[in-house]
Every structure is written in structure tokens, then in C-alpha cells.
Write a structure and sequence with these properties.
Elements lengths: L6 E3 L6 H14 L8 E3 L16 H4 L27 H11 L4 E4 L4 H9 L7 E4 L15
Parallel strand pairs: 1-2, 3-4
């Protein structure tokens, strides 16, 4: 099993603050004894505007996890605070330098990765796995996909 070194959050289907809260809440729900660091990332997309990323509300709810703030574990105000002051893009650059064998798994917009590449054009992980989409939100919602 590969250890998870960090979580970075980014504006996408929900605000970066809500994404940070969701990661914190998921760690508590899974009984993580030593929480994995959460690095808060970009609060807005590099292209377009916030409204271009809001159509997912019909699928995931306003909070990104089905609008269940009181389900176990209950959402806490502290969930909205990242566990570290270092911003996501700088953390990605540092983690890649310290762990060149690590794999980067991206489950949201790649804004933090783009900023990390601007900071350090040599920024690299051994592998990058992306669950991607596209800026215009064009997708196939067929049973076969």
C-alpha cells in the first residue's frame, strides 16, 4: 500500500474552503488517528469564472458530498481550517523534491499543479494519475461510460 503524504484542496465543484472541510471530515469519518496534512490551494480557476464550475451541484450537492452536514461525522467549524499554513502549490513542489518516487493523484481541477509548474518548471512526480474533465464541462453520461 502507498502512504498518503498530503491532501491539497482546490476550487472546483465546491469552494476551496468547502473542499478543505470535506477532506477533514472524511479523515474523521475514517478514524484517521494521525491526520494527513491538508494544504489549501487555489480559490479560483485560472480561466473562466466561478459560475462555470457550479453545474455539479445537481450531482454532488452544494457541499460536494450530498448536502449532509449533520451526517456522521457532523461538520465542524474547524473542518474549514487547513492543517498547515503552507499553500498547496508550494507543498506540491516541496513534496515532489523530497519524494521523487511518489505518485500524484489529482481528483479535481489541476490549478495547483499549474501553479506548481510556474513556480518550478522542473516540478515532477514519478507518476501522475488524473481523474479529469474539461473546461467546458462536455461529458458523456451514458451507462456504458
Amino acid at each position: 500500500m502507498c502512504p498518503v503524504l498530503a491532501f491539497t484542496t482546490v476550487h472546483g465543484c465546491v469552494s476551496v474552503d468547502q473542499a478543505t472541510a470535506n477532506v477533514s471530515r472524511c479523515q474523521r469519518a475514517n478514524g484517521v488517528l494521525k491526520p494527513i496534512p491538508i494544504y489549501k490551494g487555489a480559490a479560483e480557476p485560472l480561466l473562466g469564472n466561478e459560475s462555470s464550475f457550479r453545474s455539479e451541484n445537481i450531482f454532488f450537492g452544494k457541499d460536494g458530498i450530498g448536502d449532509q452536514p449533520n451526517a456522521f461525522p457532523e461538520l465542524l467549524p474547524s473542518d474549514f481550517t487547513p492543517t498547515t499554513e503552507e499553500v498547496a502549490a508550494l507543498a506540491l513542489v516541496r513534496i515532489a523534491r523530497e519524494n521523487p518516487e511518489a505518485t500524484l493523484v489529482c481528483l479535481g481541477p489541476l490549478t495547483n499543479v499549474a501553479i506548481a509548474l510556474k513556480i518550478d518548471p522542473n516540478f515532477a512526480f514519478s507518476k501522475v494519475v488524473v481523474m479529469g474533465g474539461n473546461y467546458y464541462g462536455i461529458f458523456t453520461a451514458e451507462l456504458a461510460t
